[in-house]
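can u do me a favor
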């Protein structure tokens, strides 16, 4: 006989209700049975194993076991089920993890709200971190604090290279990763970060870190890397060869990269060559801005076919003449 929801509402026998919860093919019937049962073991099995999020959510709302709720919160695929579990959890560490790492914005927001309600002191400010000097406490904040601002402030005060490397690789905020990368001294760690990082601001900090000194590595990044953000950042490393910077300025296929390279050329004869020959007007202007030879700048005013370049040269000449 096929059971209906109305039929389930009349059943009082525990074993019958348990069987319906675990085995009935109709999710609405299973949900009705779950609402009539209090056994924690049955509810936990339904909450973790039922195919329907609708049924799992009802079971979660009747569970008290914190371990089971934590498991559901961390593993359930349905954001509505995770939200139901979240409303029944008081563990600050778990709430912080969810507020930072849950893939759903609404679940994250609910976790934030729960933290504020349970213990608002868990949400540290930059000013709070400024008053902390214990290294272990700072490491804990850098790893686990809810706000990226607090984590950045903690990273600025941490000395441990291993912890900094961990944060530079794993923190979900590019602001925190960037701050950690600035303080890393191990060249191999920096290279590892560059090879796996995708956010351009973090790449820039890693590649321009003065502890990245291997000229062959820098040349490879500047001339051959497929990501133009890497090439652009590499030409700004203080340890890179001027010959490499000049070659990039002359040959890179992306004008942003060539323009950036021009900003780091120190040889005026090379700047003049670029100012005369580069096909991109912005790059010629960038070179002119760094040339001290008044006669050359005047020649650009007289001969460049681009009005923008000529006007920029006039501005440069005026500045040179004082």
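np, heres the sequence
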């Amino acid at each position: 006989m096929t059971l209906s929801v109305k039929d389930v509402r009349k059943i009082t026998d525990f074993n019958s209700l348990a069987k319906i919860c675990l085995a009935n093919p109709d999710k609405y019937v299973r949900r009705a049975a779950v609402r009539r049962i209090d056994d924690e073991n049955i509810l936990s099995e339904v909450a973790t194993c039922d195919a329907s999020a609708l049924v799992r959510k009802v079971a979660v709302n009747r569970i008290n076991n914190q371990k089971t709720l934590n498991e559901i919160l961390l593993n359930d695929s349905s954001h509505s089920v995770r939200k139901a579990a979240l409303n029944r959890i008081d563990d600050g560490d778990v709430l912080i993890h969810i507020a930072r790492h849950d893939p759903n914005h609404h679940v994250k927001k609910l976790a934030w709200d729960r933290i504020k309600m349970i213990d608002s002191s868990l949400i540290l400010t930059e000013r709070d971190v400024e008053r902390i000097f214990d290294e272990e406490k700072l490491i804990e904040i850098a790893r686990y604090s809810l706000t990226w601002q607090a984590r950045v402030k903690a990273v600025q005060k941490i000395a441990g290279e291993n912890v900094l490397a961990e944060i530079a690789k794993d923190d979900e905020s590019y602001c925190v990763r960037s701050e950690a990368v600035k303080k890393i001294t191990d060249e191999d760690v920096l290279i590892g970060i560059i090879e796996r990082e995708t956010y351009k601001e973090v790449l820039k900090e890693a590649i321009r870190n003065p502890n990245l000194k291997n000229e062959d590595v820098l040349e490879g990044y500047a001339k051959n890397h497929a990501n133009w953000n890497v090439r652009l950042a590499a030409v700004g490393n203080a340890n890179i060869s001027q010959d490499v910077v000049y070659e990039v300025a002359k040959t890179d296929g992306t004008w942003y990269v060539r323009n950036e390279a021009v900003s780091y050329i120190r040889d005026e004869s090379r700047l003049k060559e670029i100012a005369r020959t580069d096909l991109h007007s912005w790059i010629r202007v960038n070179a002119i801005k760094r040339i001290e030879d008044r006669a050359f700048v005047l020649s650009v005013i007289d001969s460049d076919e681009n009005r923008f370049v000529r006007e920029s040269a006039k501005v440069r000449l005026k500045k040179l003449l004082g």
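The radius of gyration is 31 Å. hope that helps!!
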